[in-house]
Write a structure and sequence with these properties.
Layout (H helix, E strand, L loop, with lengths): L2 H22 L5 H22 L4 H24 L5 H20 L1
Helix pairs in contact: 1-2, 1-3, 3-4
GO biological process, one term: xenobiotic detoxification by transmembrane export across the plasma membrane
Pfam families: Multi_Drug_Res
GO molecular function: transmembrane transporter activity
Length: 105
């Protein structure tokens, strides 16, 4: 798998564990907590695989960008978080930053 594919998977898994935190209820619910920890471990593994080839600064920034943007989007869609112009503009800026890092390799 290419390092960018590893990174895309890692970012997607980061969104999963970040959203999963909501369902753990402060780590008091067993199955959501175990699923969240498994997603976290898998995300870190994929990030490490991508960082074998990509510069760590680029890999980490793209990973957190995908995670932040994806979590914010799912927060709006699944959890009813606000959809203001500032939030949407900020998400676009995050995604532009991620794309810029990909292009700047």
């Amino acid at each position: 798998m290419s390092p960018w594919t590893w990174l895309l998977v890692a970012g997607t898994l980061e969104v999963g564990w970040a959203i999963g935190l909501t369902y753990t209820d402060g780590w008091t619910r067993l199955w959501p907590s175990l699923a969240t920890l498994a997603l976290l471990a898998a995300s870190m593994y994929c990030l490490a695989a991508a960082a074998r080839t990509l510069p760590i600064g680029t890999a980490y920034a793209v990973w957190t960008g995908i995670g932040a943007a994806g979590t914010a989007i799912l927060g709006m869609v699944l959890l009813g978080e606000p959809r203001t112009a500032w939030r949407l503009t900020s998400l676009v800026l995050i995604l532009l930053g991620v794309a810029g890092l990909k292009l700047a390799r």
